[in-house]
Amino acid sequence: MNKAILRTRSLLEVERKFRSLAVPKLSGHGGTPPFQSLQPLGSQKIYDVYYDRSNVLSTAGLWVRNRNGQWEAKMRKGGNFANSMFEELSDTHAILSAVRQLTGLPAKEAESFGLEPIATLLTNRMSWLANEEFRIVLDEMDFGHTVGEVELQRHVELTGTTASIEEQKGRVMQEMDRNIALFMERYSWAFSPGDPKGKLSAYFEWKSEPT
Fold first, then answer.
1. Is the alpha carbon torsion for 136, 30, 182, 58 positive or negative?
2. What ranges make up the beta strands (E) of 68-145?
3. Which of 24, 40, 116, 176 is the most buried (most CB within 10 A)?
4. 3-state class (DSSP) for residue 38
5. Phi and psi of 168, rounded to 5°?
6. Does the structure show a pLDDT above 70 at 1?
7. Which neighbouring-strand residues pair with 16?
8. Which residues are paired to 31 by β-bridges?
9. What is the pTM of this model?
10. 27 in helix, strand or coil?
């Protein structure tokens, strides 16, 4: 039996979190060695509403959110809490398909895919582009938590069977993760040591605190 040969285009993202910046202001020459280049990307306000249903999505490694009025989804492809690998979805049909595979619900986009809001976050994000490819972001949430990420994104066009395409994605993301690790090691002066805490983890801890 011949296996179908597919051709897909995907947006892959690999990120490594850091607790905070170790310098008061990130600049190209703020430490040794200096960045090859550093382009400030400014700041933006991000309004996120995260959705799930009885933790079915998060347990399977799928995060669905509405960010500033646009649906987005991240499908975990590897890594762990501090350094994660995702395939990003912005097409609502692809998001609907991913959600239905896990929930079996026939709900549409207008019905929030049959999901329920689980977290609402307002974030002030500052961003920089370092060495023309590494995106550094620092997020400050409205409930007082701060966390940063170094991100790499890559659009890939892959051909093969479903299994071989997933293997190819994995190899690409492993290489991206190695590149981020080397980048953060080289410019360690910019990043505070210590274990970072993700936005959602910090949010749920904050919500569970007694008032």
1. negative
2. 70-79, 83-89, 116-130, 134-141
3. 176
4. strand
5. -65, -45
6. no
7. 83, 150
8. none
9. 0.89
10. coil
